[in-house]
């Protein structure tokens, strides 16, 4: 009897000891990789991406403003602040990113052409191409505030302009919230398409596949517009942005199933430039920099900010970006992105 009790006690001590040891091993692993125990513990527990602490910011999406003139119901970068970094500070951050390995910058928002009537954006585009000599400088816009004057002044320094368009039916655009007053989204799109050709900027279309456009056939219009890329995203929920109590938008009613998304892709499979992005591909494969130049980690289905790269440097901040570098390459995040290499017939 005593022998059995002793063996059980001994076993219990061993189990406790092993448990304690593995906890400490986890702590050291987390501290080494993330420099922060609690956050690191969560990531180690999830067996999370080993690339997060070693990532190179090859392609960065800088959402320098959250302000927008549209009200898309699924918007996942909403107007939670009106802050925009002063121009010289923003340039400083961009230079730091270049020194850390950035090859492509994409300016986004909100609507990037709103702040200072597009002049702020123009100066950043010019700086990134002329001073930093980045191979690729691109912009994502809803297309409503772009002027021909902007193209005249800054078009030569811009490689790609992506315009968001989810539908070629104005009623659907209105249902989605893509519009302002009487402005016709499609007319704007056509105008911008012509300017891209005239000023030699590669033209791209971004569409969000959602409950209102999932049955639409866009083959004819996309062929006519002939973009270099047509990115089709599956509508994504992000807590605090377009889902949950604190969110400014509520996109739950816009969401579609993976099967419905596949049907949309199947209908457009003849379009060679179509690049599909499911929720799974999208969530962690973008390096997102917010208006304070903080990386946003979306791995938990919300946007958790790092410290600003201006305060802690790129290398420290990027550890908290949640960026999945492998998925970035897997989704084709690196492609021919300099207009000089695209051999376009303007
Ligand atoms: S245009 Fe873009 S930034 Fe503006 S509300 Fe729509 S999704 Fe959001």
UniProtKB/TrEMBL annotation:
Residues 54-274 form the Radical SAM core domain. The keyword Transcription does not apply. InterPro entries: Aldolase_TIM (IPR013785), Elp3/MiaA/NifB-like_rSAM (IPR006638), RSAD2 (IPR026372), RSAD2/Viperin_antiviral (IPR051196), rSAM (IPR007197), rSAM_sf (IPR058240). The keyword Cytoplasm does not apply. It is found in: Endoplasmic reticulum membrane. It holds the Pfam family Radical_SAM. It is a peripheral membrane protein. One of its GO terms (molecular function) is metal ion binding. GO terms for cellular component: endoplasmic reticulum membrane; lipid droplet; mitochondrion. Its cofactor is [4Fe-4S] cluster. One of its GO terms (biological process) is positive regulation of immune response. Residues 1-16 form the signal peptide. Its main location: endoplasmic reticulum. Belongs to the radical SAM superfamily. RSAD2 family. This is S-adenosylmethionine-dependent nucleotide dehydratase RSAD2. It comes from Scyliorhinus torazame (Cloudy catshark). The lineage of its organism: Eukaryota, Metazoa, Chordata, Craniata, Vertebrata.
